[in-house]
Amino acid sequence: MTGSNETFKEVLRFEDDALLNGSRRFIDDLEPRGTLHIAMARSPVAHARLASIDIAKSSSMPGVHTVLTGEDISRHSTPTPIGWEHIADQRRTESLAMATSTVRYVGHIVAAVVAETRAIAEDAVDAIEIDYDLLPAVMDVDAARETNAPILHSSWPDNVLATDQQTSGDGRSALKSAHTIVDLELDIGRAFGCPLETRGVIADWGLQNQAGSQRSGSVGRLIVDLNSQSPNRVREVLSQVLGVSVSDLLVRVPAIGGGFGAKANYYGEEIITCIASKVCGRPVKYIEDRSESFVATSHARDAKMSVSIGADGDGSIVAFRSDVVGTLGGEVSSVGMGPIWVSTRAGTGSYQIPNADITTTGVMTNRTPFGSFRGWGSPIANFAIERAIDALADRLSIDPIDLRLKNMVRPEQMPFQNGLGWRLDSGDYPEALRRTLKSVTQAGWFDEVTDATSNGRFVGIGLVNFIEATGVGNSRKMGRLPMEQGGFDEAVVRMDSTGTVQVFTGQTGMGQGIETTLAQVCATALGANVNDVRVVFGDTDSCPYTGYGTGGCRTAPVAASSVMLASQDLQGQVLEMAASLLNLDEAELTISNSAVSGPTGEKVTFADIGTAAYRKLNRLPDHHSPTLQARYVWDPVDRTIGYGSIAVMVEVCADTGLVSVLRYHAVDDCGYVINPAIVDGQVMGGFVQVLGSTLMEELRYDEDGNPLTTTFRDYLVPLAGDVPEMTVEHMETLPPDVPSGSKGVGEAGTMAAMSAIAQAVEHALPGGYGWIRSIPLSPELLLHHIDAATP
Amino acid sequence: MSGTGTHQLSISINGRHENFDVEPRSTLAELLREQAGLTGTKIGCEQGSCGACTILFDGEQVRSCLMFAVQAADSEVWTIEGLASPPPENQTSPTPLAGLPELAEAFKRNHALQCGFCTPGMLIAGTLIGEACGGAINEERVKEGLSGNICRCTGYQGIVQSVVEVFELKTSNPAGEKPQ
Q: Would you say residue B90 lies in a domain?
C-alpha cells in the first residue's frame, strides 16, 4: 500500500455557504416547543451584604413561573469547581452560581426570573425588591493589599488568591551583578474577548421521576444546548454541581458566533438555567444581552508588572525579573488565575536568559471575574520582556533589532529548555526576525517613514518577536499540576455505505474553520477526496471525549493528530477490503481521490467498498467484519511552541495623540500550514483584537465599582477603518513530536501586538525607546510626550 | 411595563405579504426572528451599534433592533434569507440588491467570514455601499460605509477587499459578467 500525498491547501471553507445565506443555527436561533425564558437579577452595587430579598410581587406577576434566589440554588447545587486550581495553597471561595449572602461585583447574580417571555422575565426582575448593606468597594490591587483592606472572602486572611514563583539559574540575585540594569513598571488595562454573539444556554431537564423510581440517581435526562468552546468540560461541571451522572447529561453546541476564550470559561448562568428547568419542568432559555455581557462575561489581561532586566556591556542579557500582579474579580472564574500564572512559564519569551525570577500573584477586587481571552496571559508576558529589551537597547544605545538577534534562542539549541518549565521545541527564531525586517524593507516601509518624517509626520515602525504555547498536554503532566482535565483528544472516523466519510471530533467550531481543516487532514491521510469528508462536532453523545475542549490552540497539533492517525487506521481497513474486492495484494494498491487502484487499471471506489462493508457483505470473504470505522486517542507529548516576528507601521497624530496602525506584516511559524487562508485569517484577526485593546478598548470602573463601559459606544472595538493593510508570511518548521506536523495558530496574532505598537510609536516620536509603560496607549500621554520632546 | 393588547399588521417580507399580531414593545428584529422564523437576521447588541441585525427596509439599510415592529406596518422588508437565495418560483416582485449573491461568493473566496455572525449584516451593508459608490469605489469609501458593522473575527481585510472587488467589476462591466 501507499499513503496519499494529496493535499487540499486551497480548499474554500465548507462552513461558509450556510453562514452566507443565514441558514446556520446559532444558540438564539433554537427554541424547543414550550420554552420558558430566564432573566437574571444582577447586583447594581460592587460590594454589599444582601440584607433582604422580597420576591412576592415579582412571583405573582402574570406570566411568571418562578423566581429563584440563592437559597434555591444552594438547595439544588454545590459550589462551582475551578478548573485551574493548580497553584500550591490556591485559595477557594466555595461560591455557588448565584450570590447567597454577599455580592462582590456589579453584575453578580442575586436572583433569576423564569417567565413565558424574556420581556415578562425582565419586567419581573425589576419588581424584585432587594436591600443591600453596602460594603466598601476594593477596586485595585494596591488597595486590596493594604493592611486594613476589606476582605472580599471572609474565610481568607487577605485578598490574594495565590502566588506562584518560578526561577532559573541564580534568579534574582544574578541581576545585582549585571553591568547594566533597567527597571520598568508596566500596567496593562482590562479587556475581554467580546464575541459578537453573546453567551446563551437552553436547558431541558424533562419531567422529574417520582420517588421510588428504579433508576439510580436519574431525574430524567438533562439536555443542554449552549455556545461553549468546551462541551465536555461543561458536562462534567454540571454533573458535579447538579449531582447528575455524566451519562444522564447531553451537551450540544450549535454554531458559535466567536469564542476568543470568553466561551471557554463556564459560567453560573448555565447552572442556574438547568435548575430553572428542573423547577419548572419546561425547557428554559437564557440569552445574555449585550449590556450584561460587559459585566457577566469573563474579563481579562489587567495586570501590573514590575520588571528588571540585566545585561553585560555588550548587550548579552544575563538576568530577567518580573513580578506580575493580576487584577482578579470578586469571584474566581473557571480558570482561576491561570492567565496571570502563565508569565512564570513564558516570561523570557524568544530569548536565552540564564537567570530569571518570575512571580505572579492574583488579587481579588470588586470587579467582574477574570478569565480567558485569546492569548491567555502570554501577550502580557510578551509585553514585559519585549518592553524590557527596548528599554535596555535604549540604555545601551544598541539597535533594538540587533539586541534581539544577539539574545534569541538559536536553531541549533533546539529543543531549548527555557529554565521556567517550557521546552521551546523547534524553529529558527532569528530567521523569523531577519525575514520580517527584510520583507518590510523590500516593501519600502523605511522609505515611507523617511518621507513622512521629512514632511513633519510622526510615523514609525516596530519589530518584535513572540512565542506561543500551543497544543497543551500531556494528560499525565496536567494531572500532576494538579488539574482535573487531560489534554488528550479522541477522534472517530467512519466511512458510510456511499463512501462518504464522517470525522467525529470533540473539538468545537466557533469560526476557526475546523469543519474544513479537519476534513483536509482526514482526506489527506485517508486518500479521500476532501469533498467526501464531513466533520461532526458539538454533541457529547455522538462525538468523542475531549476534556479540555477547544482552547489553548489545540486543534491543529492535537485534534488534527488524532484525526490523522484514525484516518490512517481507516485507510488500512479500506485497503484490506479493496484487496479482497479486486483480488489483488494490498502492496500493489494505491489509494487516492476516494478510490483504490491496482497496477493495471483495476479500480474500486470508496462507494463500492462502503457498499460491500455495510450492505453486500457477500462480496467480501468471511474474515472481514462489517462496517468501516477507526478511533484514535492522541495524547500530546508536550506543548509545541509556535513563534514568529511581526512588524507594524504606525502614525501618531500630533494634534490629537491618536495612533493609527498603517501596516502590519507577520512572519509566522506554526509548522505545517493546513489551510493558508484560514491560518492567515487567524493571525490577522488575532492581531486586530489586540490592536483594539492596545489603542481603544478598555473595561473601566469608577472608584465605587460602577462599570463605565457597558455598550459598544463606551467599549470601542476596532471597526473597518481602524485596521491596517495586513500581510502574513510563513515558515514551516515541523515540530519533532506532533504527528500532524502543525502547531496551533489561533492565538499567534494576539501575542506581540501590544509590544510592536508600543515600539513603533516610540520610533515615530522623539525620546528613544522604552518609555511607554501602560496599555491602552493614552492620547494624553502621547500629546504630553510630544509637547515635552519638541522645542 | 408592557403595553396591553397586540396590534395587527401586514408586512411584505422577502416578496411575500404576511400578517402578524405584535406587542407594542416588540422590535422588528424580534418579529423577523421569532414570528416570521427568519433567524438569519442576528441580534448582537440591541443598541444599534453592531450592525448584525441590518436589513433592507423599503429600500433603505435599517437596524431592525432599533425599530418597533409596529413601525413596519405596510412596509417592504428583505432579509438575508430572501436576498442571498435564488427567488422561489412564485415570487412576484424581483429581488433587490442584485449584487449580494456575488458579494457572498467573494466573501467565501476572500475568507471574509469566520464565525459568520456579522455576515448577513455585512453582506447587506456591503452591497448597499458598493452600489452607492458607483464608479468611485475604493477601500476608504468601503471602510467608511461599513463603519456601523462590527466583525470581531476577521480584521475586516477580506470583507473590504470583497466589496471593492465585486463592485469594481460591476462598474467596469455593468452587465455584471465576469471578464475571463
A: no
